[in-house]
Design brief:
InterPro entries: Acyl_CoA_acyltransferase, BioF2-like_GNAT_dom, FEMABX, PEP-CTERM_FemAB-rel, PG_Glycine_Bridge_Synth. The protein has 365 residues and is α+β, with helices and mostly antiparallel strands. 36% of the residues lie in helices and 27% in strands.
């Protein structure tokens, strides 16, 4: 070999700079979000703003890890700790979000971020580590468990209202038309007041503790125009009888109605049905081409409602690694041990339920 050429040849190691593991700082948030926007497997729930929301509203400690190579972010993992006497001690990606887990453009970043999460989970002494994945990330790894509890509903939509209407199954389409005949209308609110009234009333009917109003206000503050608050009203302008409300997220070419609720009057005028049609109309006009109906638990009314719209369920791959616990968590309303609590909660006066609810949900995530 020509020794003179060898002296000037780049070392093999220079082809791939080493990975570095770092924690997101406030100065990193913009480039974190730039990575998330460009990463195909990242979701709205990988956004840096969730750290602000979880910390400000609930006070939970968070760790937003990222893997960096040659000064560029190549993988992220959002984690938050929840410690509760009632519901256990966990580290998850990400509480209060339907999705999470590792999002990466470099396969070498995945084991690095996984190892950081497991190390942190053991240092904290949590019962379990949870990833809320869209697709399995640890298939074939016996140390990770998966539960079949949630599904998601997603469907492409058109820019044409008539085409979207005709894609709705006949019986459900009749309910949408009923709302139209009742002259319901949708308007966008800049604050959460009317939406929260509809949402809190609805979850109380279900026997579910309510999130604090502050939670929704901070979400709107953090995500701005990417978070839309739509309320459904009845009656001429000026009377404005509140029927229903929904908080939705816009992400890439998708719209995701995330929190919704209605008042009892919605039943007589198909208020919920009209609300989602009204959102679909305006989202399509805004350029959305995917309607993400969000997650639902198997065997629930929400699951049936979304299927009736012609959406097909896709299982969500929620994965768990047991750390200090010996069994998988089961903190959901379908668990028989919570049925008495649900019945009692429905009987509470709404103002009392709204006061107590936030103290409970902060530990559920």
């Amino acid at each position: 070999m020509n020794t003179r050429l060898a002296e000037h040849a780049p070392p093999a190691a220079a082809a791939a700079a080493p990975l570095a593991l770092k924690l997101m700082q406030p100065a990193d948030m913009a480039r974190w979000d730039a990575f998330v926007a460009a990463c195909p497997e990242a979701t709205f729930f990988h956004r840096a703003g969730w750290q602000t929301i979880i910390a400000r509203v609930y006070g939970h400690q968070t760790w937003f890890y990222y893997a960096e190579r040659d000064g560029q972010i190549v993988g992220v993992l959002c984690l938050a700790e929840i410690k509760s006497r009632l519901f256990g001690h966990s580290l998850g990606s990400l509480p209060f979000c339907v999705l999470g887990g590792v999002a990466a453009t470099d396969d070498a970043a995945r084991p690095l971020l996984d190892a950081a999460a497991e190390k942190l989970a053991r240092e904290l002494g949590v019962g379990h580590l949870e990833y809320r994945n869209l697709l399995p990330a640890h298939a074939g790894d016996p140390s990770w468990y998966q539960k079949e509890l949630y599904v998601t509903f997603r469907k492409e939509i058109s820019a044409d209202d008539e085409e979207n209407m005709n894609a709705i199954p006949r019986k459900q389409r009749a309910m949408v038309r009923k709302g139209i005949k009742c002259e319901l209308r949708g308007v966008i609110d800049r604050d959460v007041e009317r939406f929260f009234t509809a949402y809190a009333t609805s979850v109380h009917r279900l026997g579910t503790p309510v999130f604090p109003k502050k939670y929704f206000s901070v979400i709107k503050e953090v995500f701005g125009d990417e978070c839309e608050i739509r309320v459904i009203l009845r009656g001429p302008e000026g009377e404005d009888e509140l029927i229903a409300g929904v908080m939705s997220f816009y992400w890439r070419d998708e719209v995701l109605p995330y929190y919704g609720g209605s008042l009892p009057a919605a039943r007589e005028c198909a208020g919920n049905d009209f609300m989602y049609w009204n959102l679909m109309q305006f989202a399509a006009a805004r350029g959305a081409r995917v309607f993400d109906f969000g997650r639902s638990k198997l065997g629930t009314g929400a699951f049936d409602f979304k299927k009736n719209w012609g959406f097909s369920p896709t299982p969500l791959a929620y994965e768990y690694k047991l750390i200090a616990s010996t069994e998988l968590p089961d903190n959901n309303p379908l668990n028989p041990k919570y049925q008495l609590f649900i019945k009692m909660w429905k009987k509470l006066p709404l103002p009392l339920a709204n006061f107590l609810g936030p103290y409970i949900v902060r530990s559920l995530g």
